[in-house]
Amino acid sequence: MHQKITQALVDSLPFHDTTVWYHDTDLPGFNLAVGKTAKTFYATGEHKKRFIRVKIGRADITQVNKARAVAQNYLLPELRRGVDPRAKTMTDDERASDHASILAGIREARPEDLTDQMANRILRGKVTSRANELTVGQVWEKYEAFHRASILEEHGPEKARRAETHIMQQRQYLGGGRKYGNDGPCASTLEWPQGWWNRPITTITPELCSRTWRSLTRTRGRRSAQMFFLSVHNLFTYAVAKKEVPIKASPLMIDVAGDGVGLPKGWQTLKAQNGVERIADLRAWWRKVDHLSLIPKSALKVALLTGMRPSEVLSMRWDCVDLEAGKAWFGLTKTTDYREVALSSWTVAQLTRLASIQGEKEWVFCGPTGGRLQSLPGLTCGKYRWTPKQPRKEWKTVSAEINVNESLAEMQLGHALSGVKGRYLVTPDLRATVQAVADAIMEQVKGAV
Prior knowledge:
The structure is a single chain. The two termini are 55 Å apart. It is flat and about 80 Å long. The chain has three domains: 7-108, Double Stranded RNA Binding Domain (2-Layer Sandwich), CATH 3.30.160; 117-274, no CATH class; 282-444, Orthogonal Bundle (hpI Integrase, Chain A). A four-stranded antiparallel β-sheet has the order 1-2-3-4, with helices on one face. The protein has 449 residues and is α+β, with helices and mostly antiparallel strands. It has 17 helices and eleven strands. Helix 6 runs antiparallel to helix 7 (157-174) and helix 16 (406-413) packs across helix 17. The chain has helices at 7-12, 64-80, 92-95, 100-104, 116-123, 136-155, 157-174, 206-219, 222-241, 270-274, 282-290, 294-306, 310-314, 345-358, 390-401, 406-413, 428-444, and strands at residues 20-23, 30-34, 39-47, 50-58, 253-254, 268-269, 321-322, 327-330, 339-342, 379-381, 384-386.
């Protein structure tokens, strides 16, 4: 039903055996649900192409004007920007607002909301509630006490004093130090300015570790990255053994181009787990590719941004490419008899530029004599050696790092799938997936373009 939701209307409405929805005519997206025993306010909208409802509160607890203000000033604007209000944390301004109690029931709890006293009770096994909110810092402080006691008992006070410096250095790397330079702690971001110290420990995933390793080796050097992850290694060794912490396995599957060089003993690489070879320095690879002539340069960049096999890139024909629709297709590939490949905006721009320079001949990537290019070159840069197949493997691993739908990534890669051939057609979801991976790759090569 559509009518203005007022306090008088809410008080007068009878309960119903089935849920009846009332849609406010003055504020689209502000709704009231009346059921058997309760009347509840909601904010509704679209998030990631899905219709969602965000519960504001029950009408017997929350007044209409307060529920409307929360929907109008906070929830509906966020939904329009593509943000799920339930996945946000409360800001300091929201905590000081008149609607703090309502917003607290909607926003996720901030890690700081879990007091050290409550965390200590969880780690002692006294309570189990809110264990998922334990932060890296709270678990580390418990580990520190355990580690100090162990050294003192096993090696005596002299060894314990010498170990103290190392313990404090490890705390410093994780973000628990007292002072830092202008660049802040390792792994600090706008969202987590103290690095990993205030992050819930359950948010430390293999993908996050992989991204952080790559970032630290690039921005602070391999030695700093090693020291940071030595601290993480010690922390998770303790956390896995501590049954009160909801951690069952260490997330340290660190990527260093699949070679494991410089990793502490016991660490695994992505290659050891998944057989994936990474491009160790993507910006160096990109700069090296830019030194090639137009055709092989364009072909390698298309391979990186689409995940296609080298043989598929070389066999691309202009009559099987639709730049306006953002796709290319093949009549026969390694695993399918027909499949389509989505092209991101970056790839479309690359092919458009290529067509404007050389024209649309039979083959997209022509050789010196006008026929198809026969092979893609390997690249060498210092200690790095890159094969033509590594761009495809890099695309696959980046798709895993940004957590896109695995089945859609497999469709783009053309891996054998059970089911009908229609699963290999370009859909809006597949196009969005390919665009997301390409955007992530181009973000990594920023500065090399």
